[in-house]
Hints:
By secondary structure, chain A is an alpha/beta fold. Chain A has helices at 58-72, 88-93, 109-118, 120-123, 138-144, 169-178, 196-209, 257-262, 268-273, and strands at 3-8, 13-27, 32-38, 42-47, 50-54, 78-83, 101-106, 131-135, 149-155, 179-188, 212-219, 227-234. Chain A has 2 domains: 3-52, Roll (Spermidine Synthase, Chain: A, domain 2); 58-273, Vaccinia Virus protein VP39 (Rossmann fold, 3-Layer(aba) Sandwich). Strand 2 of chain A pairs antiparallel with strand 2 of chain B. Chains A, B: Belongs to the spermidine/spermine synthase family.
Amino acid sequence: MTDWFTEKQTEHVGVTMAIEETLHSEKTAFQQLDMVKTRQFGNMLLLDGMVMTTEKDEFVYHEMVTHVPLFTHPHPKHVLVVGGGDGGAIREVLKHPSVEKATLVEIDGKVIEYAKKYLPTIAGSLSDNRVEVKVDDGFAHIAHAKEAYDVIMVDSTEPVGPAVKLFERGFYEGIARALKPDGLFVAQTDNPWFQPELLAKVYTDIQEIFPITRVYTANIPTYPSGLWTFTIGSKQYDPTKVASTRFHTLETKYYTPALHMAAFALPKFVQDLLK
Amino acid sequence: MTDWFTEKQTEHVGVTMAIEETLHSEKTAFQQLDMVKTRQFGNMLLLDGMVMTTEKDEFVYHEMVTHVPLFTHPHPKHVLVVGGGDGGAIREVLKHPSVEKATLVEIDGKVIEYAKKYLPTIAGSLSDNRVEVKVDDGFAHIAHAKEAYDVIMVDSTEPVGPAVKLFERGFYEGIARALKPDGLFVAQTDNPWFQPELLAKVYTDIQEIFPITRVYTANIPTYPSGLWTFTIGSKQYDPTKVASTRFHTLETKYYTPALHMAAFALPKFVQDLLK
């Protein structure tokens, strides 16, 4: 008999998936962590019952959270990933030859441990010698950093549990201080179908702090509504005005330079949320 | 107690929705028809247990299946919708002032009947005096039409039940004959995550018949994977090269001229399917 896992994405809608096997379950110091083997999407990491990443569709999120900001910056050398303990964003960061150091600050060491064990194609790059892994509170790390990073990626869970602080205005002010004078950052900002107020609030907060604020989207089948948003705050470089000579060839499954540009063309109802 | 409806989108993954009330259930001459009231998406039409349209997210599909081909054609006068008995595509077609006549050919009169009753915001335009409604087999209708239409939209169900013939090469050959010498058509071509072979096959078939073949996408939360594809076959006009002066202002919730262009930038893995 097949077990089914269901994530209630809202009170009234959910996704349900056939589960072959539960690989690990644990209440960590921060959240409930489950690693399961699904029949459709391969191994899947759940935190507090929400789908974080799966082997089959993780490339969309990780390519889009990484390559859009990293191609926007003309010479990213030091990159910080806040959250992202599965290692997928780091794997994509390392595809950019200009990157000399990639720092990961993940609050929950258990996420890293079990990603390495059960999601090796995602977490494999965490042992690269350009990578520094810190098990620490991202909010506190940002609060102590000054002009340290070219690009920061906020690869957080949804705003429940340990990630609540990562959606607050004070966090974005800290990020502005932690970035170099020409730095930029990106945050995952959930979906506009079920969480329109969240995107609108975060956009407003970021826009009050950064001179350039842009929202882009990607299709992620295992995330609520399938339409995911990312918001960039930038001090100098505009992600919608990247010179075509900037793009170098990368091995990707979702990202292309044309899609980079196209991802900023928002559905009308999403545009309207940002007014 | 709340009832839940689950559509198994593949053998291993599904969407589940809270149902307030079942409004109508009937086995028609062609398929199982259910109209239910969902808590998340308003009233929803199911055919053979598959989500066809909901009040809350229908605008995406109907705007994108309509406005992309209709803005591509410089002066669409006579438009045919094959399927689409809910009336949503017709509603959008009528927003184009050049359209003199919009013909709907739906095989199942019960779809039209219950859409009018329970989806009035979608089906309301079917009584417009520019609209001709025929309850007939779309395949046969196409087989008998010669150079009759400027734009044809194939607004079919998935390729099971009565719609199987609408995914066959012979149907596209019929469409080519039914179109005027500068005509074009669009078909919904399912999602590339769970049905990659279908998209690849349809694309190949259409490309062998039409000089211009283009695929574009839209995000539809209630459809499998959330990423839907549409394929255009065109005799003369390229949907990726529409002069900006062609676009006139429409009241929309998803479509914009910028999104029209952006929708043709495909994820890398979708591009690769079309090689």
